[in-house]
Every structure is written in C-alpha cells, then in structure tokens.
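Much of our argument rests on the idea that a fold can be written as discrete symbols. The record that follows shows the chain in one-letter code together with its fold in token form.
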Amino acid sequence: MSEVPTSSGPELLAPAGGPEALRAAVNNGADAVYLGVDRLNARRGAENFELDALDEATRFAHLRGAKVYLTANVVIRPSEMGDALELVDEAWARGVDAVIVQDLGLARAVSRELPHVRLHASTQINAHNTPTVSELERLGFSRVTLARELSLPEIETIARHSRVEVETFVHGALCFCYSGQCLLSSAVGGRSANRGMCAQPCRLPYELLDDKGRELEAPGRYLLSPRDLAGISLLPQIVSTGVRAIKIEGRMKSPEYVAIVTGVYRAALDRAISGPDTFEVTDAEADALAEAFSRGFTTGYLAGIRDERLMGYDRPNNRGVPVGRVVSVEERTAVVALDKAVETGDTLEFWTRRGRFGQKVGALLIDGHERPVAPAGSRAGIRVDKSVSSGDRVFRVTSAALENAARRTFAGEDASRTVKVRVTVRALVGQPLEISLETDGHRGAARGPALEPARTKPITAADITEHVGRLGGTPFVPESWDIELGPDVGAGFSLLHRVRREAVADLERMMLAAYEGRVASHPRPPAPPRGAASNRADMPDLVVWTTRLATARACLAAGAHRAIVPAWALDADAEVPPGVEVEVARVLKDREVDCALSEARPDRSLVIGNLGLVRPSAEAGAEVWAHWGLNAVNAGTVAVLVEAGARGVWLSPEVSGRDAAAIAADSDTPVGIAILGRQELMVTEHCVLTSSGTCSQRCGTCTRRERWYALRDRKGYGFPVISDAEGRSHIFNAVPLDLTRALPEILSAGVAAVRLDFTVEHLQVAQRLTSQVRAALESAVAGHAPQAQALLDPATAGHFFRGVR
C-alpha cells in the first residue's frame, strides 16, 4: 500500500474498471483514476460503475488525495445527446473531477450548458498535432490525451506550444489503428470501437497477399497485433517533455493487474523525478510488469519505433515470462529445469510442437518430495494435463504470489492508502479538550468539554497517543504529535475517542469541501446554429473518392459532380483539374502541417480529416468539407465543424439512415454520406508491409508501396491495403458498400451529397458504376421505384439500416 504521493511531476493516471480496481489504483499510488458507468463509455465490457455508486467512489479517492475522471468517450447518437449531457451533469454533482469526452458535439454541449465541468479530450479524438490541441482548447477542453503514435520529441513540441495540459499513455495495450479512426470491428461484426464495443479483430490471424493474390512470407500470423507499450524505461525523458499526466491503459484488466502496474509505476516515477540521471528500472519491476500481463513489451512510438519491432506477430495474448524447459517426461509428469522459482498455484503455459496450453500448478515434486515452492536452478516434477516433450518451453502467465500480494493491497478493511496527519492535542484542566488533525492543505479540529482534575489516575501522553491515535477505518495515520498536557488532568478514554472521531469528521469535511454544494442542473442540449436555409437541389451531388487522378477525370465525365483525391496519392507536381477536391490527410504530425496547409487557397476545395486544419484552411480561403474521419454522428458535431469553418460535413460511415435524417433536419449545413464502395477501415502509423521484409525506413522511395496488397482473414475475405509516402497503411473493407437500392430513403433523409469510394477498381469499372449511380439517382428523384438488384455482389448495406451498438 502506498502513502499519498509527494512528487511534483506528472500525474499518474490509472484505470478503474470497477470498485475493486479503483481501490487497487488508489491504494497503490495513483494520483487519479479514470472510470466509466454502465453506458456511453469506451469500455462497455468492463465491470464499470453504477451512477449512484459514484458518490462512494469519489469520496474514497478524494479522502486519499486522488482525483476521479469519468469516461464519456464514445460518439453520441442524436437521440442520446440529452442523456449524455444528463450523465455528465449527474456525475459532476457526485464529485468527479473531470469528464473525458470523444464526441465533439457533446463537448460543445457541455461547454455551453455546463461550463463549470472540466473537460478532458479522449485519445479517441486523434489529437496528434499542435493545431488540433489548440482547436480543442477553443472548444473548452482543459486537457488533451494525445494519440499513442507520437514520439517523445513530438509530444514535447505539442506540450511546449499548448496552453492546455497534455497527457500521454505510458503502459498497456496498443491499438493497431489510430484511435477514433478504426472501423474494422464495426464493419465485420457491428461492434463499434467508437461506441465502446470493439471486438479486437486486430488480434486475429491474417495473411498478407500481393497484387497477384500470392501469400507473402511473414514472421507470424498476427499481422495486426502490436506488442504492449511499456514506457517505464523512458520515464525521465517523458517527464522532461512537460506532459501533465501519464496514463496506464487497462479498464478491462483485473484489479490485481491494476495494483501491480500502478505500484510499479508509482515507485519508478518518483525515482525518475527525484533522480533522473541515475534512474534505472529494477529487475523486480520489469518482472512484475511482465508477469502482470504482457504480449511482449515495446517502448513503441514513444521511442520512434514504428517498424516490425512494434509487433507481436507470433501471438496476440499474454505470453508471461519464461521459467524453464521440459527435460524429461514420465507418466504425465514433466520434469522442468527451472530458471525462475515456481510455486503451487502459479499458472504455467507449455509451448509444445502441437500448440500451447495452460494449467495451474498442483504439487511440485523435488527429489520425490512434494514442495510448495521449487527454487530457480532446481528440477521440478509437474503433473501435466496434456502431452509435452523434452525441450518444450515453459512460461508463467500468472504468479500466485504476485497476485496474492497485489490483492492484499486492496482487499479487506485494513487495505487503504494512508494519509499522514500531524496530530495536535491540548488537554489542560479548566479548558476544553482540543484535538486537531492536519494534512498538507487541510485541518480538522474538535473540542470537548472543559477538563477537570483527575479523581483517580491522570491521563498520560502515552494514553493520548494510544487512544487518539486509533485511526483504523480511516485513511489517516499520525505523522507527528504535538501534545500539551497539564498536570493531574482527568479524561475518560471514551471522551478522547469521541473528540477524535469529531476531528476526523471535520478533517474529512475540509478535504471534501471543494465538492460540497454540487447539484445537478438538468440542462438541455443547445440547439445547433441555423443560418439561412440552404438552397439544396432535389438531387444530391454525386461525389467520387479515388486514389487516382485518371479515375477521377473519368468519373467526372461519367456524371459525377465532384471528385476527391487524397493528397497522399498525388505526385508533388500533380495538377489538380477543376471539379477535383484534395483530401487533406487525417493524420498529420506537426512537421507535416505546413505542407498540408499549402493546399489551402481561395481556388482550392478541400476535404479535411484533421480537426486542427479545418479553421486555418478556411481562413486561407479554401472551401472546406469536413472528412468522415472526424466522426460527425450528430448535429452538435456538425455545428463544431461549421464553427471552425467547414461549408459541408461528410457524416461518419457509422451513421444510420435514420440518424442521417435527424442530423440533416437539425442543421442547415450540407451533409453527405457514402453509398457505394470499399470503406476505409483503418489508417495506421505502422506499415503493414514490414511483415513481408525488413523495413528501410525510406518510405518515399519504397517500391513495395507502389501497388495494392490485401490482408486475408480466416474466412477468406481480402481487405485491400495500400501504404502512402509517409509509410502509413490504409486498410479498406473486404466487402464494398452498396446502398443503391435504398436511394429513396437516402433522398428522403435530406443529404446534400452522396459518395462513391473507389480503391482497387479499374478505371472502366469506376466509370461504369458512376454512370449507373447517376442514372439511378435521377430515376429516384423522378419518383421511380429503385432497381431490384444491387450494383455490386457481394455487397453490404453497412450501418445504414442497422446502425451500430
């Protein structure tokens, strides 16, 4: 168990997936915890908290010097905005210190209707450059959690040039895709990562195929599964960047995991702050982190690693730590030569030629005798459930001793983080008994009746320290005593207990005073701004997205009103013809911002996927449509983007037809949706192509990225992949969208533009489909029934009818 931290460095922020994990985090030294309730948070599969239980949770944390942040870090459907705002309102009234938000529309509503609530931007917003952090500050955020894909120098640049606090992840699982930009789970199973329901399809096996359909050799099957981040060795450098908080991932992990990892990082962070020049990670700390949970560790993007060293190609789950090898097998008993001690209750995993299996250790046999512990260097007989062979490796994935020690820090009445108090007692005959308890910044005091001379035995200083010092059941422990005790003072022990309890209660009131008086205000969501009614034509604009200028020209000739080509697909000297809009990348590090902004000028139409570039591009005179990657799923988010300068907004691919209609009805801004083609599901800092060979890190001249590839899943579906000149991979859906049979519903929704996405299609195919969709649109506008057959087969209707969970 930990004392209240005294370091002045960044806040240590730990996960609390449930009440036990909260106690584990606080008791092991977290400065703050982040938690969710049973709805509208990005870990809906965690235990989470009931809203009514937040009072108790915040009280527990605040009395021990820790803050509590509520996660409301999902996108909010139009019908949910009122409930989301009420959730924030009620949670604030129950004592949370901040609310972590992804949805820009919800942030706008909170800033306007609940301006007293402190807002933190979720990493799901995908903030990875200084302009985006500045835009979030303008929106009312006090802190921004940066994307995991930033290096330490990039983090420092943002921290030094931002007026809001910045926070970075330091330990835990790494997403393969930029957070907030991943649609893979929702596309293949309807479980949206932007709604807290990610099914983690990135942890499944895939094969990489070239443009001829040939499988490329790879070092493993799990081509989208990163190792886990462990930034502990970089703590002095992280502290020096100026970040205000470092974050441990893991709301889906066990309380024991939270206890172990938080405790290790608490001790290490304190050393990194007090002695950065001599800082080292101890072997015990490294072992504890690996045994808590590990897919294999990497310092990852923090250290500028984005190649194959980031990845765990051979397995996607906990690999534990190696403890030895099987040296012989006799009648279902494996004799293991141990490099590390093993004890009864540990969970071991045997890596055999036929696969892997795990089991708990029962009896340990050493020289024919059962032992509870087998020391390192010994040979221990272990009864095995399945067949093993000599030479098989053995790993420990759960340490019974480590987990039991961790559990003792949060389970039981006496498990609590301690707060040191300075105790003052004044006991003089004829004057009231006075007891005060003082922490750094707070003082609680109580007075009893005037004391009389002792009738029998007077109280002593030892009596006072024993009975006033009985602070069990509270987080407080005496740090020092200041006792003024007169001669021959009489006082019963019950009086000492009563006044002590009153002093404790007064100290608790003082420590919680900042949260007293909070009441829910029951706000209503603000109405989106309305200007003059837009003059929309009966038929929405037909827009084509493609990676090739030649295809864009052909589709314009076939009837498209506009075309979009991503900047990353254009040559540096390419001439953009009339009718073609340039898509400014959704991922732009600070070093790339100036080049991207050079596209913004009065004669240029842009589609911008990076929040921080919407405003400066519009101010430079460009006509801006907001990209679908900005996750507009409600009219509030549309309003945010319009206020930043967007003239139109492409809605998220996760928006249903019903929600698109609600957004269009609530906003005068033109909005558009995709109706055909392969949707982009991922944009990644790691290049998928590195699995097929050593990466030279010279992405701009890499010949491998000049053609398309595909990732084939277990069912045989191929997801097209292309890597851009920055080495970022773009992964598209295996099954194309086709909503051409739903054109009447699309027209009735009131959208101003519909989009066709072309990736691997040949120019002639894209041209033909454009012509067919144009004809189908004109037919639907004329009131004719839609065609009976879809244009594509196989095809999906995406989320238009079903929405996302």
User: Anything to note?
Assistant: The CA atoms of residues 552 and 563 lie 6 Å apart. The chain has a mean pLDDT of 95. The first strand starts at residue 11 and ends at 15.
